[in-house]
Amino acid sequence: MGVNVLTNRLIKYVVRRAVGLPADDLELQRIVGSSRYIIMRKAVGEVASTIVTEKNGHLRCGICLRGPFTRKGLYLHLIRVHGNEILSMIEKKYEEISKVYKDNVWY
């Protein structure tokens, strides 16, 4: 699989998890590989918790604050409008967490 296919799958996985749609950890492991899975799982969790907000019971985009959206509408909005930003957020968070692991010699 090409890099673009894997990054698209990763973005879709993170967004599904963020909006509360089914997202299996096994799928994440298939996307990122076994060696990156543990750190990536933490990074994905942290990013997913920041890209969606809820206000008065309505889902809103945590990046641009637009909304309200249905789950599917917010999923589409995040992928179409903020896909590259989400990928950057994941990469940055992965680097931060990796550094902590290396500094604490967790390997």
Shape: globular
Q: Which strand order does the major sheet show?
A: 1-2
Please give the alpha-carbon distance between the first and last residues.
28 Å
What is the subunit arrangement here? single chain
Mean pLDDT: 92
Order of helices and strands: HHHEEH
The largest sheet is:
2 strands, antiparallel
Estimated structural class: mainly alpha
Count the strands? 2
User: How helix-rich are the residues, as a percent range?
Assistant: over 70%
Low-confidence stretches: none
The Cα radius of gyration reads 14 Å
Q: Helix segment count?
A: 4
Strand content: 5-15%
Count of the separate structural domains: 1
Give the key terms.
107 residues; mainly alpha; two-stranded antiparallel ribbon; 70% helix; globular
Question: How would you characterize this protein structure?
Answer:
By secondary structure, this protein is mostly helical. It has one domain. The protein is 70% helix and 7% strand. It has four helices and two strands; from the N terminus they run H-H-H-E-E-H. The protein has helices at residues 3-19, 25-32, 34-50, 71-103, and strands at 52-55, 58-61. Strands 1-2 form a two-stranded antiparallel ribbon. Helix 2 (25-32) crosses helix 3. The chain is globular, with a radius of gyration of 14 Å. The two termini are 28 Å apart. 24% of the residues are buried.
Task: Give a quick summary of the entry.
With 107 residues, this protein is mainly α. Helices cover 70% and strands 7% of the residues. The chain has helices spanning 3-19, 25-32, 34-50, 71-103; strands at 52-55, 58-61.
